[in-house]
From TrEMBL, chains A, B:
The keyword Transferase applies. This is Citramalate synthase. Its EC number is 2.3.3.21. One of its GO terms (molecular function) is (R)-citramalate synthase activity. It holds the Pfam family HCS_D2. It comes from Paenibacillus agaridevorans. Residues 5-266 form the Pyruvate carboxyltransferase domain. It catalyses: pyruvate + acetyl-CoA + H2O = (3R)-citramalate + CoA + H(+). Belongs to the alpha-IPM synthase/homocitrate synthase family. It comes from the Bacteria. Pathway: Amino-acid biosynthesis; L-isoleucine biosynthesis; 2-oxobutanoate from pyruvate: step 1/3. The keyword Amino-acid biosynthesis applies.
Length: 539, 539
C-alpha cells in the first residue's frame, strides 16, 4: 500500500568529496558489502574514468554477490564532440555495471559560465549521452545539476534539460540541489511542477549547506520523488550530502513509505558506525537516530519519566534502528547484545547471574574508558571467555622497553620484550620501522619458538582513532587491529593515552585469540599439544 | 516590510543538557556577552531555582549592560499547591530578570504518566503560574512541552493548555517539539491551526532527533510563529536543540525575515566558534554556514568553476555570515587549487613558472607518499612560502630520543630533544603520558625560553590516520595536528611509518607556522625582535 522509495547510496562517490575522507579500494569494497546487507537499492561506486582506485573497485566488486545495483558515475559527453568516442562514457560502459548516473547542466548560468557553451549544445550533450547508455542496455539516471537554482532562474530551460534526458531514454530524472541553498517549500513546489510536466520517475539529490538536506529530501518525496540519493552519515563536500541515516527512518517510520525491509532497518546504527570507523571520521554523539547520545537521557525529570514510560521522551523505540537507550547517570547499556554474544559462543551465562552482573559492569567500565567492542569481536570473546570459563593465560608479558633515536635522516627503533611461557622466561629484541612494529616483531620472535603456526598469522588491518581529540597529544587513542590466518579473521582493541601501549594491548589480544583457537583445533597442531601438555587451557 | 522574528537563545540552559557540555558561571557570562553582541533578543540564562551556578549567573549578569533580555527558566507550580508559595517560582521573581519562561505539560499522556495528576489540575497549574508572573510585571513565556505530540493525541486538550496560559496573561505561547519526532508538514499544519485559534504571539522550540529541527523551525515561522528558540551550534540533550546558526541565516538571507541587524550577521561564524571553544566541543568542519568546510571546495571541476564565478558552487557569499571560501588541495583536484591557494597567500607565482612546476611536483610527490594538505593549510602555506620566498628556518632540531619502559602496571615515557636556535644548542628532557606527549613537552620546554608566546599556543586537535592499513603495524600513518592561539587556528600534517616521527613533523610545522606569524606581528612581540635580530626571516 505504501509507496516504494528507492535508496541510492553515493557514500563511495560523492561522500569521498568530504573534507578528510579518503577511501582505498579495499575500504570501498567493505562498505559496499555493508550497504548491500542494509538493503539499499543502488550503490554508486565511483567514476571508472577518473582514477585507478575506482577502476580497481569496479573490477573487484563484480566478483562479489551483491543484491544492490552497482552504479558508475560520469558526466554527459564533452562539448562539440561525439558521445560514441567520449573516453569517459566508454569507460563507464566497459566497466560492466548495470546502471550509471550522468551529471549534466540544467542551469543556464552554468552552461554559459562553467561549461562555456551554448544552451543548445548542452541539450544535445544530454540527449546523446543518454541515448548511448540506453543503446548499451544500461539503466541510466540523469543527475540534473543545480536543477533548483536553474529552475528558479529559467524554468523553461531547466525543464528542457529534463525533457532531453527523457527523450534520450533516461530511466530517472534526479533533481539536484547542488549548492544546497534551496528551501523545503521551494523543493516541494518545484518537484510538484516537474511531476506534472514529465512522466519519467523523479529522484532527489540534496546537499546540507542550509542544514536542510534531510527536510528537502522528505519534501521532494512528499511531492512525488521516488528515488533518494544520499550518503551514510551525510558525508560529502562542504556541509555534506543528504544523510541517509536520517532520511530512511523518517520515510519509513514517520511517513509510512517503504525503503528497506523492516528487519533491515535494525542494521542502520551498526552500518552507520561501521562506515564511520572505516572512513575514520568521528561520529558526533548527537547524530540523529544512530548517534551514541540519540537516545541518551541526562535530565533528572526526563530520566524518571523515562523509567515510567520510554515514550515520554523518546520519539521512536531505539531498537527499531538498532540503537539503544542510555541513561547517562546510571548506564544500563548493551546487556542484550552481550548476552546474545555469549549465547552465540556457547557460554552458559543465564545460570551465572553473579558473573553476568560482574562482566556487564566490567564492559560498561571499559566502554566508559573508550573501548569499543562493536569493531573488536575477538577482544569481546576473550573478555567473556575469561569471565565464564577457566582459560589460563598461555603466556604473559613481563615487561617491554622501547628505544628510539632520530638525528638528521637516520632513525633507529628497537624493542626488548620479556615473555613468560609456562614458567619459561624468554627475552628477545627486534628492530622495526616504528615502535609498534618493533614491538610486534619482538613479540612474535619470542613466541614463534613455542607456537610455530604464529607465522601463518598476519595483521591485515591497523587503525588508530583519537578519542577526546581536544586533549591533543595527551589524548587517549583507540587502536583496532585486524588479524588474518588459520582460515579466520578477527579484530581486537586497545585503549591508552600512549599509542604504543594501546597497540600492544590489541596485539596481545590478537595473539591470545589465535592461540585459543589453535588449541581447539585437533590433529597436527603442535601448539595444541604443547598447550595441553602444559595444562594451560582447562575447557 | 519583512516580519520581525525574535531570536531566543537557550544555549546557557537547554544547551547545557547536551552530553559533555558543562559551563561555569564565568563561561555563561562570557557567552552571554557574545550573544548580546550578535544581537539575539532573549538570552535564557538558566534556572535560578536549581543550583548555585545559575544563581551566581543571574546576580552577576545584572551588572553587565546588555541589550538582550535575560530570561529565567522554571516550571509551572507544583501540583496541588499554591503558586504564591512555590519556591521555584519565587526564585525566578526574586532573580530580578525582566522575562521568564515556564515549561508546562500540554500532552494528556504526560499529565497522567509523568505528572500523575488530573487534566484539570494541570490547567490550573498553568493559569496560576502565569497569573503570578504577570502580577509581578514580568514578560512571561509558556513553553508548551510536547505540544505537537499532545496535539496529535488530543488536540482539544493541547489547545486548552495554551488558552489557560493566555488567560493567565502569557505574552508568548511557545510550541515545543520536545521529543523531536514531528515532521515539517505536521508542524506547519498545527502551527497554522493554533494561529487561527489564539491571539497571543507564537514561538517555536524544536529538537533535532529526526535531523529536522532547522526545517521545523522554518516551517513554524512560515505558518506564523514569530519567536524561535534554539541554541548556538544546536547544542542540547540527545540530538540537540534547533541550531540558531542555521536558522538565523536561513530566515534572514533566504526567506526575507528580519532577525538580526544586517551587519550583525557577519558576527555569526565568530560567535559560533567562540561558543564551541568555551564549551570545549569540537565544531564539525562541515557545519552549515559557520563550519570550516562550509565554503571549502575540493573537486577539480568545482574549483575551476569557482575561479570563474563563486556563485557556481556557493549558495551565498560566505562573508555575509563571517565565513570565508577555502580551496582544498587534494588528490581529486588539479593545479588550479594550488595556484589559487598561493594567490590567496599573496605569493607571486605566475611569474615564477619554473618554481611553480617544481612545487607542483613536490606536492604531488608528497601526496603520493600519503600527505594530505586539504586538512593541513598551515603545512601547505609553509611549503609554498619555502618555495616562493626566502624564509630561513628559525630553529632546527638536531636530534631526539625516546625511551619507554613498561612492566606490570608501571610505565615510564621520556624524551630528550636537542634543538639549535640561531647557533645556540639547547638540550631538554621531559616526561609524558605517551611518547608523542613527552616529545611535545620537551620541544616546548626548549623553545619557550626563546619564544615565550609559545605558551599561548595549545594543540586543539590531534588525529591519526593509518594509510595502507594492509601493512599493519609497519603501515604509514598520517598525523594531523590542529593548533590554536594568537587569535588563529591552523592545521599541520606529518607522515611516516613511525607514528612518533609523523607526529613530530606535524608538531614542528605547527610551531614553525606560529613563529612565522609571530614574526609578522609588529609591536610588543619580543619573539619578532629576536627573530629579526638573528636575521632569521628575510622577507
Amino acid at each position: 500500500m505504501s509507496a516504494q522509495i528507492f535508496i541510492f547510496d553515493t557514500t563511495l562517490r560523492d561522500g569521498t568529496q568530504g573534507e578528510g575522507i579518503s577511501l582505498s579500494a579495499d575500504d570501498k569494497l567493505k562498505i559496499a558489502q555493508k550497504l548491500d546487507a542494509l538493503g539499499v537499492h543502488y550503490i554508486e561506486g565511483g567514476n571508472p574514468g577518473s582514477n585507478n582506485k575506482d577502476i580497481e573497485f569496479f573490477k573487484r566488486v563484480k566478483t562479489m554477490k551483491l543484491n544492490a545495483k552497482i552504479t558508475a558515475f560520469g558526466s554527459t559527453r564533452r562539448k562539440n564532440s561525439v558521445a560514441e568516442h567520449d573516453a569517459s562514457l566508454l569507460r563507464i560502459i566497459e566497466s560492466g555495471v548495470p546502471a550509471a548516473t550522468l551529471v549534466g547542466k540544467a542551469w543556464d548560468f552554468h552552461v554559459h559560465t562553467a561549461l562555456q557553451t551554448t544552451l543548445e549544445e548542452n541539450l544535445a550533450m544530454i540527449f546523446d549521452s543518454f541515448a548511448l547508455l540506453k543503446h548499451h542496455g544500461m539503466e541510466a539516471m540523469y543527475d540534473a545539476e543545480h536543477f533548483f537554482d536553474g529552475y528558479k532562474n529559467n524554468p523553461e530551460y531547466a525543464l528542457a534539460a529534463l525533457r532531453k534526458a527523457q527523450e534520450g531514454g533516461a530511466d530517472w530524472l534526479v533533481l539536484c540541489d547542488t549548492n544546497g541553498g534551496t528551501m523545503p517549500n521551494e523543493i516541494h513546489e518545484i518537484v510538484s511542477r516537474v511531476k506534472e510536466e514529465l512522466n519519467t520517475p523523479i529522484g532527489i539529490h540534496t546537499h546540507n549547506d542550509c542544514e536542510l538536506a534531510v527536510a528537502n529530501s522528505l519534501a521532494a518525496v512528499q511531492a512525488g520523488a521516488r528515488q533518494v540519493q544520499g550518503t551514510m552519515n551525510g558525508y560529502g563536500e562542504r556541509c555534506g550530502n543528504a544523510n541517509l541515516c536520517s532520511i530512511i527512518p523518517n520515510l519509513q517510520l514517520k511517513l509510512a513509505y517503504s525503503c528497506l525491509q523492516d528487519d533491515r532497518l535494525r542494521l542502520l546504527t551498526g552500518t552507520a558506525r561501521y562506515v564511520s570507523e572505516i572512513a575514520n571520521v568521528h561520529m558526533p554523539v548527537g547524530q540523529a537516530f544512530v548517534g551514541n547520545a540519540a537516545f541518551a537521557h541526562k535530565g533528572g525529570i526526563h530520566v524518571s519519566a523515562i523509567m515510567k514510560d520510554a515514550k515520554t521522551y523518546e520519539h521512536i523505540e531505539p531498537e527499531l534502528v538498532g540503537n539503544k537507550q542510555r541513561i547517562l547517570v546510571s548506564e544500563l547499556a548493551g546487556q542484550s547484545n552481550i548476552i546474545s554474544k555469549a549465547t552465540e559462543l556457547g557460554l552458559d551465562i543465564t545460570s551465572n547471574n553473579e558473573k553476568t552482573k560482574l562482566i556487564m559492569e566490567q564492559i560498561k567500565d571499559l566502554e566508559h574508558q573508550g573501548y569499543q567492542f562493536e569493531g573488536a569481536d575477538a577482544s569481546l570473546e576473550l573478555l567473556l571467555r575469561d569471565a565464564f570459563t577457566d582459560v589460563v593465560q598461555i603466556f604473559k608479558v613481563e615487561s617491554f622497553k622501547i628505544h628510539m633515536e632520530k638525528s638528521n635522516a637516520s632513525m633507529i627503533c628497537e624493542a626488548i620484550v620479556k615473555i613468560n611461557v609456562g614458567g619459561q622466561i624468554v627475552l628477545t629484541a627486534a628492530e622495526g620501522n616504528g615502535p609498534v612494529n618493533a614491538l610486534d616483531n619482538a613479540m612474535r620472535k619470542a613466541l614463534v619458538q613455542f607456537f610455530p603456526r604464529i607465522e601463518q598469522i598476519h595483521l591485515s588491518d591497523y587503525k588508530v582513532r583519537v578519542i577526546d581529540e581536544k586533549d591533543a597529544t595527551a589524548a587517549k587513542v583507540r587502536v583496532l587491529v585486524e588479524s588474518t590466518g588459520l582460515d579466520n579473521t578477527w579484530s581486537t582493541v586497545g585503549v591508552s593515552s600512549n599509542v604504543i601501549e594501546a597497540s600492544w594491548e590489541a596485539l596481545l589480544d590478537s595473539i591470545r585469540y589465535a592461540l585459543l583457537h589453535m588449541s581447539k583445533t585437533t590433529g597436527d597442531g603442535t601448539e595444541s599439544e604443547f598447550v595441553e601438555r602444559l595444562g594451560l587451557v582447562n575447557h
